[in-house]
Design goal:
By secondary structure, the chain is an all-alpha fold. It has a domain of 158 residues. It is 69% helix and 0% strand. It contains 17 helices and no strands. The longest helix is centred in the C-terminal third of the chain and has 37 residues. The mean pLDDT is 86.
């Protein structure tokens, strides 16, 4: 079932009414369990196809029960085996020599389930999460249907606290307008803006010729990089807006996943604004433990560089099962590591006060923002390989054009785009007027959205992060 289909919203409204009818915790858990099972069942008609997924989840729960015993050696061995099982089920190319499961099976949401289970295992074993977790609540946490497909990744503690709240959820008229405005804005991003930029980069890829000068070709691909990056942003952030709005209708406040990534002045800042819940997971469970181990063994700057490369390498591997995502992780890690070395080097060269003075110049910040966006836009072009045959065009481009030239051209083109976004942001103080928070404005947005969808085509569109 596609979340942007009519069927999903009929399904959601039905279960939302049931869920909010009573405030008993046991009642809400049972209704949510029924909703989650019904939602998952729409991904396949075969019961057998769910066997690997539910076997993986059951194995995870058994490890959670074992984690409370505090036996570290065997626990870490079992967790390692658990991750290997995940790699096998996900069909990673490095295990292609091993016979695969001899029937088709459901993979949707498996990567996010892995994150949640590892979070539970680490926190329980470390003593940060106490109290018994029933299988029912464990299941509802893993399969919470609004964010099952593509996140955001909510911590169990937050989910449990909200699901156990027995007070009645009352919504003021302003809150109702705010919730539906968030959902409508999400659909604008997902169905309108993402569709526009998707059509733009795909049409440019299909019609690209590799004749002509390097600068003109670099310029054409710079537009492709930017359009594809904007497509990823509007597709994913639009989905997150919808999911957060739906969660609020169930009384569950899901964590934000984006925080104005266009304002990022460096690559490290960018990852605190983009896919925030995933970034925080990698920070807490991979980067910080690695840094703690390496910090006293090598120089702090080099330790940070190594930790960034390794962390982003894992992030790349999580995104996809082929070599291209291994390279994607290396590129991301290299960018973050060099960024950290640059910051340390400049502070050492001109001093901390000098560096702060340099950052105070708006032109410097603008160039840094453009360079950050350009690097990221070029890095995520590998996502095209997931569902677009034009990926071969990208490979030909990287073989034909100087990468540094392409990066410079992409940066130059992004500068005026960021300036335009800044101008629009300054005008957004108009949203403080009551009109823009009124029922009339919400209805107006819905009408515009309806007409835009008809103009662009009304079929359900794919969620980029659904395949992970």
């Amino acid at each position: 079932m596609e979340f942007n289909s009519v069927e999903f919203f009929v399904f959601f409204l039905f279960f939302a009414v049931l869920f909010n009818a009573r405030q008993l915790v046991a009642y809400k858990q049972i209704i949510l369990f029924g909703a989650n099972v019904c939602f998952i069942a729409t991904f396949s008609e075969s019961v057998l196809s769910f066997l690997p997924l539910f076997g993986f989840v059951t194995f995870g729960y058994m490890l959670i029960l074992y984690a409370r015993l505090g036996r570290s050696e065997l626990f870490y061995l079992l967790v390692s085996f658990f991750v290997i099982v995940f790699i096998y089920i996900k069909k990673y190319s490095l295990l292609s020599f091993i016979p695969s499961i001899p029937f088709p099976y459901v993979l949707v949401g498996l990567s996010y389930i892995l994150f949640k289970i590892l979070h539970l295992l680490i926190d329980i074993h470390g003593g940060y999460l106490r109290g018994k977790i029933s299988f029912l609540e464990y299941f509802n946490y893993l399969f919470f249907f609004p964010c099952f497909v593509s996140g955001p990744i909510q911590r169990y503690q937050d989910f449990s606290e909200q699901i156990h709240r027995d007070s009645h959820q009352d919504y003021s008229s302003d809150e109702v307008v705010s919730i539906f405005s968030r959902i409508t804005s999400g659909f604008f991003k997902f169905l309108v803006f993402a569709a526009i930029f998707s059509q733009l980069y795909k049409s440019l890829l299909i019609n690209t010729s590799f004749g002509g000068g390097s600068v003109s070709l670099a310029g054409r691909f710079a537009v492709i990089f930017i359009a594809h990056g904007l497509y990823i942003y509007f597709n994913f952030s639009g989905f997150i807006d919808i999911v957060i709005g739906l969660g609020r209708l169930l009384g569950i406040h899901l964590p934000e996943n984006f925080n104005k990534p266009h304002l990022s002045e460096n690559f490290l800042d960018f990852w605190s604004r983009w896919h925030i819940t995933m970034s925080e997971w990698f920070k807490f469970y991979i980067f910080n433990p690695l840094l703690k181990v390496l910090y006293t063994r090598v120089s702090p700057g080099f330790a940070s560089f190594i930790c960034y490369v390794i962390t982003f390498l894992f992030m790349g591997i999580w995104h996809g099962t082929t070599l291209i995502f291994f390279l994607y992780g290396l590129v991301m890690g290299f960018g973050a590591g060099v960024n950290k070395l640059y910051q340390s080097g400049v502070k050492h060269w001109i001093g901390k006060k000098g560096y702060n003075r340099l950052k105070s110049y708006s032109s410097y910040r603008l160039i840094c923002r453009a360079m950050t966006a350009a690097y990221f836009s070029m890095s995520i072009i590998c996502f095209i390989s997931l569902n677009n045959e034009s990926f071969g065009q990208i490979v030909l481009f990287f073989e034909s054009v100087n990468l540094l030239l392409s990066y410079v051209v992409t940066t130059v083109l992004i500068v005026p785009l960021l300036m335009m976004i800044d101008m629009v942001s300054k005008v957004r103080n108009f949203t403080d007027f009551h009109f823009f928070r009124s029922d009339f404005w919400l209805a107006f947005k819905i009408i515009i959205l309806f007409n835009a969808v008809i103009w662009l085509g009304s079929g359900p569109r794919e969620i980029v992060y659904k395949v992970f």
